[in-house]
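Weekly modeling sync, notes
Attendees: AB, CL, MP (scribe)

Item 1: holo prediction request
CL wants a bound-state model with LNRAV4D5 before deciding which constructs to order. AB pointed out that an apo prediction alone won't tell us much about the pocket. Agreed to run with the ligand included and paste results into these notes for async review.

Input as submitted:
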Amino acid sequence: MKIENETGADVATLRWIGGTDGYLQMIDQTLLPTEFREIECRTVETVWEAIKKLRVRGAPAIGIAAAYGVILGLQTVAGSDRGRFDQRLKEVSEYLAGSRPTAVNLFWALERLQKLADLSPELSGGEMHQRLLDDALKIEQEDLQMCHKIGEVGARLLAKGDGVLTHCNAGGLATSGGGTALSVFFEAARQGKEIHVYADETRPLLQGARLTTWELMQREIPVTLISDSMAGWVMQEKKIQAVVTGADRIAANGDAANKIGTYSVALLAHAHGIPFYIAAPSSTFDLSLESGNQIPIEERLAEEITNGFGKQTAPEGVDVYNPAFDVTPAKYIKGIITEQGLIQPVTKEEVSRVLSTADA
Ligand SMILES: CSC[C@H]1O[C@H](OP(=O)(O)O)[C@H](O)[C@@H]1O
């Protein structure tokens, strides 16, 4: 995402600096909103740690970071023969695939680079390294364009003066720059629709409180922070005319995995007759899965709940269950906003039809 830091310079959520011997620069999102700091990743291990610790997070951003992580990992075999290069490529891909299990964009990016390498076995390691970097850069640029198109498709669904609720952060920080759910809000605001966003704080890591409010305030879009437990009440009070969230993996039938709590929000929206939309690029779909019950759900450390942000709020040794995602069945999703167009109704047939449509 492009934001002005204290020096007034434009910075990106993450970006590659230099050539194949370069490095990855990213905003450390664990420090926001109180501190804006860019960190440098010069090894694949530092990228793995950044993904695991959510310094970089959000399905598309994780995919882009993983692609650049591969480039970093291959630096250790610069100048080696192609056989050693290919072996290292598999090593770093498997390593990065172990960082977080749910966001399919991570695996989509790794598989894309592997397929590219498989297409040209005749190239030297050095030539292939450059080709993979070129494609990693392309992944980032393609994501930026997809975010923009998602905004255009989704903004049509919002009316002037709408109250819209979102959960977690599906903004520029979760992508190459334009966001998915927040891209819809950015574009609606640009069109003068004067929307008002209600942002769930999103326990336990507070991506909504820390990141979504910060992004919207950066752009002077009206935003009200609410606790997760308030979502139903603001709907009952008719403050909400639509809900738009992101996604981390969408199955062939349209079932969608997203941050824990999204399923509850979808049920609440359904109970109040409020349309619930998912905004996601085509790289977030996993058509190999028939339905959402096959989506792997990441479980994270108990400390994120019992000692959130360093404050102990539960007895030592309490039993904790901390799934980072849940799955919303397609029947509760009014439409899926993609760069290829709106998937509505959300059915296997419509998913397949829209995703196979030429550029929207
Ligand atoms: C545009 S994808 C954003 C998606 O990713 C978030 O998960 P996390 O912060 O754990 O990476 C959340 O599910 C968002 O909706």
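Recorded for review: The pocket of LNRAV4D5 is lined by residues 54, 57-60, 168, 170, 174-175, 180, 207, 245-246, 248, 258-259, 324 (CB under 6 Å).
Action items: CL to compare against the apo run; MP to circulate these notes.
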